[in-house]
Amino acid sequence: MASHPGPLTKVGTVVVPLLAVVLLALTWGRDLPGPVVVVVALFLAGAVLCAVHHAEVVAHKVGEPFGSLVLAVAVTVIEVALIVTLMADGGAKTSSLARDTVFAAVMITCNGIVGLALLVGAWRGGVAPFNTEGTVAAVATWTTLATLSLVLPTFTTGKPGPEFTGAQLAFAAVVSVVVYGLFVAMQTVRHREYFLPVTRDGEVLDEDDIAHPPTNGETYLSLGLLLVALVAVVGNTKGISPVIESGVEAAGLPQAFVGVVIALLVLLPETLAAYRSAVRDRTQISLNLAHGSAIASIGLTIPAIAVASVWMDGPLLLGLGATHMVMLLLTVVVSVLTVVAGRATLLQGGLHLVLFAAFVSLAISP
């Protein structure tokens, strides 16, 4: 978890979301010139960072694993909102945006963030310890959700192409909500101890490592500012989305790379939070953040897209191609072999980072 910011940073985390909302009101529905796009992009990045900061303040108050859950859900709400807003006006060219963004989020979290956390933890202490029961459950959950939502559409025959029928999409949406709910219940109620950090000797740590947790007033203020920041992120991203798409096209990159850009933007602050936890020998918190985001990304995005598809025109392509399915399968195999031991070495961290690098390389040059 992040440390509390200094006075200037505290002021910034209050002012930036409010200014971002004002900027949103001034630019809504207008064609933006280049300099204005730069200003909007800066405030968008600031609003994302502020949203994550305020989520972390709330997280400090409620403790683990609730803290990781708050941050993961906050980040995922941003991601889902970005997908829906971009798809609402994008037409057929954004038919695969949900699939591309969700798959990118899974690769970034389960390979990029996990690999970084394991590498840092193992580098500092020889091995990076974590709780096997909770981590295995998380891997099983995102594997199930990814297979049902991103692999099955490629093989169903109700519609041509990698697409669900209406009934199949509704089933996938309901199952995603149910599975996500079961995982959250396990994580926060029935088996909370499975998701607490452990020492290198295997001792479970159930302590508040923050010397001065936020007061109730600070917590409620951060909760309100978190909502403001989320509104600013969603609205301003919709304003600059044409620039993102045209930039990807001008660079000669595949349209699917738009989803990668969105996922990278949204998950960067969470990556920093996971890195800070790994530095403090709290690898389990890093894994909670990574796997929790992957689960929330699928478990919340698919139902949201299913509802939005009622009024959106055009196809909704969810099924992965052969190359991405191979990447997903390899990620699942490596993840299972990594977590069964309850501790990881530099090798496991390096393998996940290699898979992440392969994903980025294939996204640029399929």
TrEMBL record:
Keywords: Membrane, Transmembrane, Transmembrane helix
Primary residence: membrane
Bilayer topology: Multi-pass membrane protein
Compartments reported by the entry: Membrane
Positions of the Sodium/calcium exchanger membrane region domain: 37-188, 222-364
Record field: transmembrane: 12-29, 35-54, 66-87, 102-123, 135-155, 167-186, 219-236, 256-275, 287-311, 317-339, 346-364
Name of protein: Ionic transporter y4hA
Organism: Streptomyces solicavernae
Biological classification of the source: Bacteria, Bacillati, Actinomycetota, Actinomycetes, Kitasatosporales
